[in-house]
Amino acid sequence: MPSAPISPRKTPRQARARATVAAIEEAAAHILTHGGVDALTTNLVAARAGVSIGSLYQYFPTKEAILAELLRKLRREHLHDLERAAQQGGDDLRSTTTRMIRASIAHHTEAPELARALEAAESHLPLDAESEALKTQISAIWTATLSTHALPDPSQAAFDLAALTHGMVTRAVQAGERDWDNLAARVTRAALGYLHLCTQDDHQPTQQP
Amino acid sequence: MPSAPISPRKTPRQARARATVAAIEEAAAHILTHGGVDALTTNLVAARAGVSIGSLYQYFPTKEAILAELLRKLRREHLHDLERAAQQGGDDLRSTTTRMIRASIAHHTEAPELARALEAAESHLPLDAESEALKTQISAIWTATLSTHALPDPSQAAFDLAALTHGMVTRAVQAGERDWDNLAARVTRAALGYLHLCTQDDHQPTQQP
Amino acid sequence: MPSAPISPRKTPRQARARATVAAIEEAAAHILTHGGVDALTTNLVAARAGVSIGSLYQYFPTKEAILAELLRKLRREHLHDLERAAQQGGDDLRSTTTRMIRASIAHHTEAPELARALEAAESHLPLDAESEALKTQISAIWTATLSTHALPDPSQAAFDLAALTHGMVTRAVQAGERDWDNLAARVTRAALGYLHLCTQDDHQPTQQP
Amino acid sequence: MPSAPISPRKTPRQARARATVAAIEEAAAHILTHGGVDALTTNLVAARAGVSIGSLYQYFPTKEAILAELLRKLRREHLHDLERAAQQGGDDLRSTTTRMIRASIAHHTEAPELARALEAAESHLPLDAESEALKTQISAIWTATLSTHALPDPSQAAFDLAALTHGMVTRAVQAGERDWDNLAARVTRAALGYLHLCTQDDHQPTQQP
DNA sequence: GATGAATGAGGATTCATTCAT
DNA sequence: CATGAATGAATCCTCATTCAT
C-alpha cells in the first residue's frame, strides 16, 4: 500500500518542460492502451517519450504518479462532459438523463482500453486531493440533476445510476459493441426504470406479462 | 495473447495431495482477498499454505493456473446459485428476475474482494474449456429465463441485465454497502425498468415529472 | 564436481528388476537422443520408463549414474566392434586399419545423437573403474594393431588415429553425411597418410604440385 | 530449436559501460574455463565481474547471448589467424597447409578449456548473422587455399581437413600435450596424406609394410 | 537540468532427491 | 520393494529507482 506523494513532483514552468511532461503522459497512455498495465514500465515510457529515464523521474516521483495523472485527466474530461450535458437543453429529467448517459458512454468510448486500464489501476493508487474532489464533483452533478425532481434519496440514486451506466457501458464496449445510440437507449431505459419514469413508447414491442 | 495450459497440472490422487491442493487454493484466496493480485506471489501462496514451493508447482503449472482455478470455482458457485434461483418459485418474470438478482448479489457478497480481484484478473487469463462453458451456461440461464416472455432480443437483454446487476452490485459492495435487501430492490427496479415491467408499488413515492 | 558413487546402486538379480533397469536405460537413451542432455530429467526418465521415480533411485543413485551406465554400454559395444575388426581378415596394416575405421564409423552411426550427447557429458562424469578399463582396452587394440608394424611410437599413433577418426566422423555425421563408404575412404586416406602408407591408387586424379 | 535474439542488447556508449561489458565477458570466460558451462550462471558471472546482475542484463539479453559473444570473439580470432597463415609465405600447398594447421592449433591452445566449452555450447545456441558469416569465411579460406591445387572437391577437402585437425588437436590438448611443434607435424602428416601429398622426409623413420 | 549506467530486491519456475505410506 | 508426494536450493530474469557525470 503506497503512501508516497502522488502528485507531479514539480509543476513544469518552462515550455520545454511542459512538452516533456506531455510526451511522457502520451507515451504512458499509448502503452497502457496497447499493452495494459503490465506493459507499463518506467523505462519503456521514457523510451517511447524520447526522454531519459532520469528526466521522467524529474517530473514524476513514482510510476504510480503517472497513472494518477492520467486518471485525473480522464476524470477532468468526464466531469467536463457531464457538466455540459447537465446544463445544455431542457431540464426535463428524461432528456437530461439521456444526455448525461451519452456523456458517460463517450467517456468509455474514446479510448476504451485506456479507461479500463486506468480504472483497474485506481484501487492501487493513493488518492490525492484533486482526484477526490473530481469524484465528488462528478457525483454532485448527478445528484444535482436528480434533485430537481422529487426523489427520496437523490445521492443514492446518483450513485446507482452512475454504477448502472458504468457497468452496462463497460461490458458492452468490452464485448465489442459500437452502436452507441442503441447502447444509450438501453442504458436510458434501465435508468428511467430505476427512476420510475417508465416508458412504453420506445421502439419496443408490447409485452404480455 | 495467452496460450499456455491453464488447467491443474495433475489431479491429486491421494488424500494428502488433495489437502495440499486445498491449502494452496485457500491460501491464494486469502492473499487475493487481502492484498489483491499484486500480492499474489507463488512463494507467498506456498508459504501461507504451509507447503513448499515445489509442491505448489506439482499441481499448478503456473501462477495463472491458480487464478484460473479460483475463477472456475467462483463461476461454478455462481452458476449453481443462478440455477436454483431460476428453477425455484413461480415463473412470473418479475419474481424470477428478483431471485436471480439476489443470487448475483450473493455472488459478490460472500467474498467481495476476492470476486473483484478474480474478475480483474480474468482478462489476462487464457480461458480453458470449462471456464468458457461456465460462462456460456450462466449466460444461457438468463437468456432462458427471459425467453419465456416476449422480448425482442432475449440474449441481448440477458447480457444487459447481467452487466447492469454486476455494475451496481460491484460498486455498492465497494462502497461498503451491506443492506442486501435494499440493494436487491434497487437493482430489480432498474432491471424491470429495462424490461418495461415498471412498478409503482415498491416502497417508493410517486413521482410527478 | 561430483565424487559420488557412479556405478549402479545394486545389481538387479531378479528378472523384474532387470526389466526395470532396462526400461530406465532405454528411456534415458530415447530422451537423450531426441532432446539432448538438457531434456534428461530423472522424473521424465522414470515416467517414460513407466516406473516410479522412487524405483529409479532404487537402481541408480544419481542421474549421472544413468549417463555413466549408458556410456559404458556404448564403449563396450565399441570395444567389441573394434576387436572383431582387428581380428578378422588379413594382418595387412592397410586393410586392418580400414576395417577398424569402419568399426569406429559404425559406432557413431547407429545413434549419432546419443553418442554425441554421451561424449559431451563424459567430461562431467566421475570415471569409474570399468570405464577406465574400457578406454584402456580400446586404446590397446589400436596400439596392438599398429605394433605389428615398425612405428616409432605405436601408442602415440594409436592415439592420433583414434582422434583423427573421431574428429572426421563426428563432424561428417553432424553435417548430415550418410555415405559411409565414401567417408570411410576419406578417413582411411588420412590415416594411411599419417602412417606414411601413401596411396596414389584410389579414385583420385593425379596432382601437379 | 532456439530463436531468441542473441546479439548484445545495447552497445555501450560510455567508457564506463564498455568497461562493464569487458568485465562481464572476462568473468564469463574465466568461469567457463575453470568450471564449464554448468558453472556459468548469470549471478556468478555478475559477481565475478564485480557488477550487479542488473548491469549484466543491460548488455546481454540472455545467458546464451554471453556465450554467443564469446564464441564470436573466438571465431573472429581464428579467422584472423587463418587469414594471416593463408596469405603469408609461398603458395606451396604443403607449407601453406602447415601454417594453417599451426594457426588452428593456436586457436585451441591459448585457452583450451574455453574453446572446448564454447564449442560444446555452440549447438544449443541460435546462430546470429555474424557467427554464420564467420563460419562461412573460415571455411572459405580453407577452400580457397585448396582450390589453387587440382583437387576433385576442394570444399569437401576443406571440411575434412578442418575436422581432422580439430579432432586431433582437441584430443591432444585434452590429454595434456604441450609440444605444439610435434603435434603440428603429426597433424600435417595426416593432412598431406589426405591430400595425397605424402612425404618420407619428416623426422620419421622409413617403414616396411 | 539532462543523461543513462548501475543497482538489487524480488519473483517465477525447475528438478534432483528423499521418505512416509 | 514400489509409489509418488513433498522438498527447497538454485537459476534466470525484470524493473522501479538512484546517482555520478
TrEMBL record, chains A, B, C, D:
InterPro entries: DNA-bd_HTH_TetR-type_CS, Homeodomain-like_sf, HTH-type_TetR-like_transc_reg, HTH_TetR, TetR_C_15. Keywords: DNA-binding, Transcription, Transcription regulation. Residues 41-60 bind DNA. Residues 18-78 form the HTH tetR-type domain. SUPFAM superfamilies: Homeodomain-like. Pfam families: TetR_C_15, TetR_N. GO terms for molecular function: DNA-binding transcription factor activity; transcription cis-regulatory region binding. PROSITE patterns: HTH_TETR_1, HTH_TETR_2. Signal peptide: none annotated. This is Transcriptional regulator BetI. The lineage of its organism: Bacteria, Pseudomonadati, Pseudomonadota, Alphaproteobacteria, Rhodobacterales.
